[in-house]
Amino acid sequence: MKKNLSPISDIGEFNLIDRLKKILPAVEDPGLLVNIGDDTAVIQVNEQEVWLITCDIQIEGRHFRLENTSFYNLGKRSMAVNLSDIAAMGGQPAFALVSLGLSPDMTVNNYDSLFEGMRDQLAEFNAHIIGGNLAKSEKNLIIDITMLGKAKPNQFVQRKGASFGDQIYVTGTLGDSGAGLALLEKFGREYPRKYEPLIQAHVSPKPRIDIGKKLAEKHLATAMIDISDGVASDLYHTCKMNKVGAVIDFEKLPFSTDIPEVVHLCKLDREDLLLHSGEDYELLFTVAPDNSPNLLKQLSRDFSIPISHIGTIFPPEDGYKIHDGRGIKRNLNPAGWDHFKKQN
Amino acid sequence: MKKNLSPISDIGEFNLIDRLKKILPAVEDPGLLVNIGDDTAVIQVNEQEVWLITCDIQIEGRHFRLENTSFYNLGKRSMAVNLSDIAAMGGQPAFALVSLGLSPDMTVNNYDSLFEGMRDQLAEFNAHIIGGNLAKSEKNLIIDITMLGKAKPNQFVQRKGASFGDQIYVTGTLGDSGAGLALLEKFGREYPRKYEPLIQAHVSPKPRIDIGKKLAEKHLATAMIDISDGVASDLYHTCKMNKVGAVIDFEKLPFSTDIPEVVHLCKLDREDLLLHSGEDYELLFTVAPDNSPNLLKQLSRDFSIPISHIGTIFPPEDGYKIHDGRGIKRNLNPAGWDHFKKQN
């Protein structure tokens, strides 16, 4: 590689990941079905089973603040973030490994609570911690989790797979986690109790394992990703990977009833919140146009989770657009969360 | 769990891991052959194959200092540490996932070099990076690696398995990494060039994959661990797990020819260096008494790596002892590296 002495903040997260294509060699292993660039790697381990493997690092101050959560909820959340990647492939979680960087003045009780939260979040899906590693961190708490899930070889969903005409859907509602965070930043733990569901969406998001599995089993989703960086950004990366364009309809983006109030209260921008706030951990997926929307309605009823049609996949020359609230079609700015870009 | 409000530094790393036995539920999965407490977890994935899974977090300032190494060597080392855990089970490395916490002022070239080092270390064993995750760290570089290895179901070696009469062996030499670190701390990068092998042992340790695999395949090792915390500490934990005692012979501990000179130069304690300095990543293993030492001699010749007999496993009531340099048998202090205890 040519020497590049600029700071990594100049090129940003996705360019950094792109560089690995040049640095790392191609892997000639017939068992490796999905390599870097999806929610998880996928490895076929026998005729009936593939394994999904992902890891995610969360650093105090960047990904969470201890004043906004309990250690128990932090444990749940750190597992949920990884479970969500398994959900986005349509898999069943199985095992987790936990690497922690702990500050020595953390209490034993904090440590216990963190693991109790992790354990309870995994137990919802019959998954277990089977290993890990403890180290000392001078200052910030660091949580890195590796998650292993399982799926059938013909029943997992990648980010690749969307084609022209596919319809775009999301589970749940958008912006809840961002609104919850805004409330915590404004009120601290003294937030108005009526907004508890938004707070919960932020401190303890629900991974969409069951609905993800069903979308995969029924071969409904042609491509799928979980929304961690904001729907605009995650859809944009999916489009880029599939070499397609998309138009989404702002009026169709689903949101909770309390959102307009919180937007006003916390002086948020509604469009920004719904399109660009991350960490909702809902599923964003595409469905072939000949698939009946009734199947999705049934799924939504079965799991009591909204599934909303928000747009359509177009050829790449149509670009990446949004019908905004005034019925005007304009370019959609994919800018979501980038861990390295200076604007963050 | 009863609330314990003391800081984790009061109870230390091994007690923290022990608490997980009470917090985490038993796992009823017939495929999970080895759970928390060994160098890796072990999962049977088909009739011919088990998977070995481990992860390890390394934090700048605690596990490495950027002034002592290049990003390339740091990449190699961070993989080597994880490969060593696969070696300690007698496995063949296959895949790695890399989670990084990067400071935004790191250069793109630093980033490239880090991955090039990782790639090259893995390439020695035909293993590959297949996934990971990038995040921003305010200050310290954080490297968390998950390593997947493979073995045959009846051919992996656990920490459990040592019994009375077994003979204790180590590969390579002890204290090289500790001596290398002492030289770097005294001289910085201007260390006398004749000590390059000791420096290399610290900045780019060699995982003992090939010899570990052979010890497993030939069913020579009854129990095995890699030396990360110092031979005294790692042997002690192996003894405790196996409910056995041990006597080691100080005069038999293998060391490089330059060690006495460096001990003098850097004002080190030779016994402390050989027994308690960590990060050698050599293999420590036990062999049944009826196994001919000639097999090990042959193995040592085949791989051009010393294999030294350093002691014997005894019943637990015989305790944990050392024959010191003056021929006196005394209790061996297991104190090695503990990430949380205050003395560190």
Compose a concise summary of this entry:
2 copies of one chain form a homodimer. With 344 residues, chain A is an alpha+beta fold.
How does this structure look, described?
- The structure is a homodimer of 344-residue chains.
- With 344 residues, chain A is of the alpha+beta class.
- Chain A is built from 10 helices and 13 strands.
- In chain A, the strands form 2 sheets. Chain A has a 7-stranded mixed sheet, with helices on both faces. Chain A has a 6-stranded mixed sheet with strand order 1-2-3-6-4-5.
- The first copy, chain A, is globular.
- Chain A starts with 11 loop residues before the first helix and ends in a 13-residue tail after the last strand.
- Chains A and B meet through helix 1, strand 2, strand 3, strand 4 and helix 3 of A and helix 1, strand 2, strand 3, strand 4 and helix 3 of B.
